[in-house]
Design goal:
By secondary structure, the protein is of the alpha+beta class. 35% of the residues lie in helices and 21% in strands. Helix 2 links the parallel strand 1 and strand 2.
Length: 526
């Protein structure tokens, strides 16, 4: 996946694209894979980097949503459980079975959640990951040695999926390219092209953020998959129209593995304000979250609110014997959920806003996808492409993504089995880089098990263009330990300058930009 070659393909094509997808997060990338695998000429444009926004900032779970079952949203849970199973089948190098424990501190907790989770198991059917069961206090402590033991009665074990969201996004981009799509990051859509006689959308105006070169690109249908920024494109189509997105912010704090030393995750089904809280093992660290705060601003780099940080620390402390403090936070990150705004009135809490996705079609033919979540990305894409086919008058072609293998697929690679497992069948090629150049041999950050060869691979094959791309999304250094990523940003910049044929000035600017960004990922007063 080479950016220069992708731009050459863009310039070479004179005929209209069958589908132009705007947005390179989970939704847009899923659509590109679906459309390209059906044989449609597909172009995807992302204004920043793939998964820069919401899609790299999740709780790292592929799940049906136990709390949606609690709320009675059976259709969403059924859909998500099916999609969870398909993700694991199609990307075993990226998605794995994760065991969760719900600690029970009241006698009624056990039967209540055991029954609910049995229903959860039944709804998963043949795609289930394992049966839930009630366990004793002793078994709970063995699974969670650091759990708060005072008044602990026992626990309930159940199964869901765990994954690396940004790596899944990069793999989807590569899958789309495998099926001849053209996929570009740092390519901003600045306007819509419309037919003068009927006002129908017939393409996009865009600019290459790296060179400033402007493009007018014809397309038979344009799909708005811009996530929390979907309203921006909708405004280009219908100025002054009501906003479709009501963003909800969620934050996560990352701690050392000592807070959760075994392989089990914790799920807290009812926090003090009715939210769900998770503590999940991830790359020898622990991700704890999340919050659910309605916000007004839509930023590429949302900032964790002080009240959110305190809430996560306090809630985690109620379930862990060792109270986590600000000094224990290795990294913190915030993301915005692109929730579909309620049609009648304002929702006061996020519970009132549906997690279902919506496919909307404007009078101009613009197709917009909003809502949804990572787990259901494939189904969202299928619905969007089906609608786009109708709008563009394209030939009917059946969706094949339910059994389409994601780039890197290797049935012998188990997700999370080692630092290189995310590459699947590409692992040997990544490691070959070490052999061809002694400078690229060894660790970039040994504590995070990230190799220098991964940086080179990210540049050559995964369209990484900045130090941030490498340390935030191609590897997850920034999200795992912000200070550790700061310590190596200079080395990454120098490797990138060499590979991309850039000068020292470029490298220096990259380091300055990354240092400014990284400060948002750790608590400076800790």
């Amino acid at each position: 996946m080479n950016r220069k070659k992708q731009i050459e393909k863009l310039k070479k094509r004179k005929d209209p694209w069958d589908m132009i997808v705007v947005g390179g997060g989970a939704t847009g990338l899923g659509i590109a894979v679906d459309a390209a695998s059906r044989g449609f000429k597909t172009l995807l444009l992302e204004q920043h980097d793939f998964a820069k926004g919401t899609s790299s900032r999740s709780t790292k779970l592929v799940h049906g949503g136990v709390r949606y079952l609690q709320q009675g949203d059976v259709s969403l849970v059924l859909e998500a459980l099916k999609e969870r199973g398909l993700m694991m089948q199609n990307a075993p190098h990226l998605v794995r079975n994760q065991s969760f424990v719900i600690p029970a501190y009241e006698w009624w907790d056990g039967p209540f959640y055991s029954i609910g989770l049995k229903v959860y198991d039944l709804m998963a059917g043949k795609l289930g990951l394992g049966p839930s069961k009630h366990i004793s206090k002793e078994e709970t402590i063995k699974a969670l040695p650091t759990v708060e033991q005072n008044q602990l009665k026992g626990g309930i074990v159940y199964h869901d999926g765990q994954f690396d969201d940004a790596r899944m996004a990069v793999s989807l981009a590569m899958t789309a390219v495998d099926y001849n799509a053209v996929v570009l990051n740092y390519f901003k859509v600045t306007g819509l092209i419309k037919e003068p006689e009927n006002n129908m959308v017939s393409g996009v105006e865009a600019v290459d953020q790296e060179t400033g070169e402007k493009y007018e690109i014809p397309g038979k249908v344009v799909i708005n998959a811009a996530g929390v920024f979907a309203d921006s494109l909708k405004q280009m189509d219908e100025p002054g129209t009501r906003e479709m997105i009501k963003p909800s912010q969620g934050i996560h704090l990352v701690f050392d593995k000592s807070f959760l030393p075994e392989k089990f995750a914790i799920m807290v089904p009812q926090t003090s304000d009715g939210r769900v809280m998770f503590a999940v093992p991830w790359y020898n660290k622990v991700v704890v979250g999340t919050t659910d705060t309605l916000v007004d601003s839509k930023d590429l780099e949302p900032k964790a609110l002080e009240k959110e940080i305190e809430f996560v620390l306090e809630t985690a402390g109620q379930y862990l014997a060792k109270q986590p403090t600000r000094k224990d936070v290795l990294s913190m990150f915030a993301g915005l959920r692109p929730l579909a705004a309620p049609e009648n009135g304002e929702a006061k809490t996020t519970k009132e806003i549906s997690r279902h996705h919506k496919v909307l079609i404007s009078l101009s033919g613009l197709v917009t996808v909003i809502g949804g979540k990572w787990t259901t990305y494939r189904k969202m894409a299928e619905d969007a492409v089906d609608n786009a086919i109708m709008i563009a008058g394209l030939a009917e072609r059946k969706c094949i993504t339910s059994h389409l293998l994601i780039h890197g697929y290797d049935k012998n690679t188990v997700a999370g089995s080692g630092p290189m497992s995310v590459y699947g069948r590409d692992r040997d090629e990544v490691e070959e880089i070490e052999k061809e150049n002694a400078q690229y041999k060894g660790w970039l950050i040994e504590s995070l098990e990230i190799k220098k060869a991964q940086v080179v691979w990210a540049i050559r094959e995964e369209m990484a263009r900045t130090v941030e791309d490498v340390l935030a999304r191609r590897t997850r250094a920034l999200f795992l330990d912000a200070r550790a990523s700061l310590a190596v940003c200079q080395e990454v910049a120098e490797i990138m300058a060499k590979e991309l044929n850039k000068d020292q000035s470029w490298a220096d600017k990259q380091v300055t930009a990354f240092k400014t960004l990284a400060k948002q990922y750790f608590l400076e007063d800790a």
